[in-house]
Amino acid sequence: MFEAFGVDLPKLFFQVVNFLLLLYLLNRFLFKRVFALLDERQRTISKGLEDAEVAARDRELARAEREAAVSEARKEANEMIARANKVAEDTRNEILTDARAEAEKVSARARDEIVAEKDKAMAELRAQVADLALFAAGKLVRREMDDPTQRRLVEEFLAEVQPTRPAKSSRS
Amino acid sequence: MAEEEGGSLIHVAIKAEKLFSIGPFEVTNSMVGAVLASLLLLAAAWYVTRRAQTVPGRLQSLIEMPVEYIAGITAASTSRWRGYVALVVGLFLMILVANWLGLLPGVGTIGLKGEHEGELVPFVRPAAADLNFTLALAFVTFVVFVWWAIRIHGPIGYLKELVGEPRYMAPLMFPIHLISEVSRLVSLSMRLFGNVFAGEVLLATMLALTTAVIFVLPLAFFVPAVFLGLELIFGAVQALVFALLTMTYITMAIAEHEGGGHESDEEHPAPSPA
Amino acid sequence: MTMEPDGNPPQKTRPANWGIAFDLGIRLGISVILGLGGGLLLDNVLNTSPIFILIGMVLGIGAAMYTIWDVARDTMRR
Fold first, then answer.
1. Global pTM?
2. At B37, phi and psi to the nearest 5?
3. Pick from B220, C20, C24, C63: CA 20 to 30 A from residue B122's CA?
4. Which domain, by its residues, includes B76?
5. CB distance from B67 to chain A under 8 Å?
């Protein structure tokens, strides 16, 4: 059976030797270096991945830091603005109340003065009116009405009239 | 061969033909093929290692790709893959190059006029179309496989494995085990030889058929090209099958004792279908 | 075949699996042929014409069956 296929020991032996020799040489020169290269490339790739990962982590860290700083600054600014607003508001209120009080005071004084002035004028008026009334009454009666009793009567009358006048003047 | 022309066109010798002899040693054309394939591989290896870079060029990666692929598969088999990865990759490369070498133009057609009947004896024959070559490869594989089995089980353990478990069954089981083991060797070598040889015959037949009849001559360019393409694929597949089976055999020899406990509880589903 | 504890992804061994399937059929035929051939050889040497070829045939078929079992066991062990 083997002869039909041309198999004999020397040829078989030659092929075995040929293959083993090839295997030895390949293993010596190609495989070791190729496997080493494969390992190295694997290492390089994994190192590159690692580096990229580290870089990404750093970037992320920096981003977070930046964000934190920004938000901190924003918060501070907001606080500052709020404080300034509050101060301004307070100042405004203070000024307003002061002004209001001042105005009140001024107007009160003016009113007092007016009242005093009016009272003075009233008193003068009253005196003159009394004189005029006496004088007019004297003229009308053609008699002197200078005796103290009559004068007192007129003054009493005017005193009765008086209370209505200030009320009317204060209202106007 | 009784035929005049057609017969000589289709003729493909089943054994490698003798080219010349050195003393008592016959040099056949398949030896030339094997040596040529080896030299080609070594040249490629030299090229790759001479200007090896970590980031490979196109040609370098083309050569490294199969090495990487097979090495990757082998590395996934067992933890001792370093011990046999060189054999697996080497087998693959050798068979691949030897097969594809046989498809080059001129390989089967340039040669001497033979001694008998004026047959053409090609200088180069695809190495795997010679049973000597495939048997040699299978033999190396077989020896490595048995060596690993002995290394894992010890020589006596391996013999015990061959004899089988119930000792009184030994006269029956020992030949059966032996035949089963040897069948690996024959299966590997015969399949490779058969495929490559059949491919050679197929190509020769197609060429003869299309050139024999003059009015289908245009087919003579087209049909063999299709079959050449097919042979290209078959050559690669055969190389892959040979290499992977080698790996599987060795892996089985190693794995039988490696996993220990976790294998014993997975042993149970196996006998039930038997 | 067998996965290592520290092993690699299982799909990497798949090409090896169809390799086994490829191989099994041929090994069956070869087992029988080897048995027959061995028997024939022994018969020729010992001049015991039909005895060893029958034994060889039985052993060859037995070896084929054993091979199936062996491969199935190895494949299922994963």
1. 0.64
2. -60, -40
3. B220
4. 6-258
5. yes
